[in-house]
Amino acid sequence: MTARASIRRAGRTLRAAARGRGRALVFAVAVLALGSAAWALLAYVGSAPAGAERSSDSHRFAYAGTEVRVEFLGEVAHDEIFEVGEAVSADGGLPAPRGADGDAVGETAEAAPSWLSFRYAIGDDEREVLVAQRPLKNHVSFDDVARAGAAEGDGYPVRVGGRAYPQGAMLSAKDGHDYRVRLPSCGQGTHAALSEWNLLIGGVHEGDRDFRGERFGWLDEPYTDDELNVGYRGSLNWCRDRWHRDREARVVRGYFHVSRFHATPSGIASNRLYWRPVLERVTPGERQAGPGLRGMSLGSRPQISADRSVRYFGAVPHEALFGDNASMAALVGLDVGTELGDGRAPWLVFQRGGDTLLVAAKPLLRSLSWDDIAAVGAARAGGESIRVDGEAHPQDAEVTDDHENRYRVRLLRCGGATLDDSSEWNRLIGGVHGGDADFVAHPGGLYGWIERPLADGALGIRDGDGSASWCFETEELRGERHAVNRGYLTVARYHLTESDFPGSGFGWRPVLELISQP
Q1: CA 391/CA 371 separation, integer angstroms
Q2: How many CB atoms lie within 10 A of CB 13?
Q3: How much is the CA Rg of the chain, to the nearest whole Å?
Q4: Whole-number Å distance between alpha carbons of 93 and 12
Q5: Residues 487, 489: Cα–Cα separation, whole Å
Q6: Tens digit of each residue's pLDDT (9 = 90 or more) over 81-109
Q7: pTM (predicted TM-score)
Q8: How many CB atoms lie within 10 A of CB 2?
Q9: Closest CA to 276 of 160, 207, 181
């Protein structure tokens, strides 16, 4: 490491330490280590108010109604993580990328890099990661990394050459923590705002023609192309993302400009294609991948939204959960309205914010009011009471499936406006639907991000019986309770209707929220 880089690293380490430790001791050490330069740093950092968040080392912004927080924690030396001399080693190091014959492949570019430490959160989804400051190897393909189980980090298999390789590579580091080994997320375009490449690398890099503005280069002393091995004659880095226009290609970033976006076949290896691993810290008691629904086969892997906050596992037939004879209406005692079809639509399986949610693919009943649903305790969850015709009805409807999975039954949370992107309607239904004028489908956006987005008919979005799905939320208008409903005519349609109105256009689309399993 150059003298300039050493001083920069010491400064970053000092600032990170000052946030969490006693200032006097930290600054005293800094003075001895850096001489007169430390006094200037002491005066600058020491002048900040106690407990103030240093804007140079962290950044916050809102994206589509979701709060995003990124914090740079400084550099971590190679020997603070690894027991061995080189990062890639069979003895306590990273798993080596492997060719079709099973042998290690690639040429070493950086045997013992420093690691950039970040903590970031998109909404409630918080992660701590270490990103290799410089890539470790080139002449490595995505498939080579996947054969080592180090490409995607979610435990699900990637198929290479007709064989499935689970992506569960782990590292037990010297710091006492376990890390999953994977590639960075990079999105589906140059301005993939919530990708790790843009949030992390873009955040600490000095910027280029596309990476400029308040979201980029916010570090006090941002890194140069050379320090990160990006830019002109730099590295083109493999990412975990599959390119949505070609299922055989993977996204790569960083060559010529740090923001450079490209895609290439997953089996290609060259001197320009590099492996820059990410180590994601595994927290104790972390929820395992997959919805954990006993007795159901949900396919090999979920599809994940661009911001990593929603996982979609596909559809489960009603009969796989509740057998041939029991409709959901019968299970909760809802004996009003008219069944749509046989009242047994498939269930779309999602995970969001640690919750497993099964959403009816289509409304199950029509010609019933929101009050009718509340009267059997299935409008909301949590036991609150709702008055219908002067009588209080606790919202405590629950069902148990044939495999002893237990759920509370409620309506979808649909938010307070058409583009309330924190709502379940927008993030779940909007995420799997093919889109409309308001919900613009895009693999790297909030809407229509699954491989084959669902059409109106598959979700019961139309004009006609039951297509306006009653929702969780209500409002008082002119002294009367009105309930939110969505999905009439277009998927984004947002409306309020008197809660006691049982028109044929209104439907019951329940949500099953997993409570427990055997």
Answers
A1: 11
A2: 18
A3: 26
A4: 26
A5: 6
A6: 987 788 887 666 899 999 999 999 999 99
A7: 0.68
A8: 9
A9: 181
